[in-house]
């Protein structure tokens, strides 16, 4: 299927690894010019070269910086001021017990996983509507549907973003701009491995043992691959997805057992 987005431009946040990288690669293979951000310069350049190799006909721009800061957002938007596609993504806050979190921990989580996406949307959505085309995808978490007790900071911040998007997305679609959320379940990423390490330590297991338990507990009997997450993201960004907005797509191998 031709997704109809060749020649468009995308800003992909936290795109040097994991799910962000999966989205960047999938979009690049569809002919989208890519700007990726990440905090670590070395890893960012490695991924940029990998994208160029996978899609040699597109333009790849790498911007080092922390997207959760005003300076990081300014640098990213200077490199890609008029994106047709915006992929909001940032590392989640650490797991733990809510009794141990101070106000500063909550503010940091809100800044990264709620307020940063909103700031980037505010900076780009009007231009998208003026041009008559835009796709905004927020990478959130399956915890929005099924909260995970040790991820309280993430549960709260990402649910706040979800509520905000539910209202805004109905106001932009008439002018060709859709806004949706992708909710990853257990994908094999550094983030998942970090959380699994905490669980492994709590239960006296090795990391490999914990990962195997997590995989076998999923109905798919495996962890997800970032490439398949990227494919779902690319479709939501396509010309074929113009009637989809304000939705929360759960990609979890069937782990969530609810009907709604």
UniProtKB/TrEMBL annotation:
Gene3D superfamilies: NAD(P)-binding Rossmann-like Domain. It comes from the Bacteria. Pfam families: adh_short_C2 (PF13561). SUPFAM superfamilies: NAD(P)-binding Rossmann-fold domains (SSF51735). PANTHER family: 3-OXOACYL-(ACYL-CARRIER-PROTEIN) REDUCTASE, NADPH-DEPENDENT REDUCTASE BACG. Belongs to the short-chain dehydrogenases/reductases (SDR) family. This is SDR family oxidoreductase. It comes from Microvirga aerilata.
């Amino acid at each position: 299927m031709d997704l109809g987005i060749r020649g468009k431009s995308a800003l992909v946040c936290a795109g040097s690894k994991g799910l962000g990288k999966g989205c960047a690669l999938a979009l690049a293979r569809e002919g989208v010019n890519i700007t990726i951000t990440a905090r670590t310069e070395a890893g960012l350049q490695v991924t940029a070269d990998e994208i160029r190799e996978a899609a040699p006909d597109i333009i790849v721009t790498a911007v080092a910086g922390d997207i959760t800061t005003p300076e990081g957002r300014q640098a990213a938007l200077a490199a890609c001021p008029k994106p047709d596609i915006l992929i909001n993504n940032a590392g989640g806050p650490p797991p733990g017990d809510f009794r141990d979190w101070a106000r500063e921990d909550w503010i940091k989580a809100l800044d990264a996983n709620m307020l940063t996406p909103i700031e980037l949307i505010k900076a780009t959505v009007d231009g998208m509507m003026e041009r008559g085309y835009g796709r905004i995808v927020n990478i959130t978490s399956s915890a929005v549907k099924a909260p995970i007790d040790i991820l309280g900071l993430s549960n709260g911040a990402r649910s706040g973003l979800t509520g905000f998007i539910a209202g805004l997305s109905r106001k932009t679609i008439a002018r060709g701009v859709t806004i949706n959320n992708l909710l990853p379940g257990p994908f094999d990423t550094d983030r998942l491995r970090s959380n699994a390490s905490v669980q492994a330590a709590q239960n006296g297991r090795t990391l490999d043992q914990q990962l195997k338990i997590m995989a076998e507990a999923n109905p798919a009997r495996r962890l997800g691959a970032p490439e398949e997450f990227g494919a779902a993201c690319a479709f939501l960004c396509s010309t074929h997805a113009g009637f989809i907005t304000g939705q929360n797509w759960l990609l979890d191998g069937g782990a969530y057992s609810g009907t709604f």
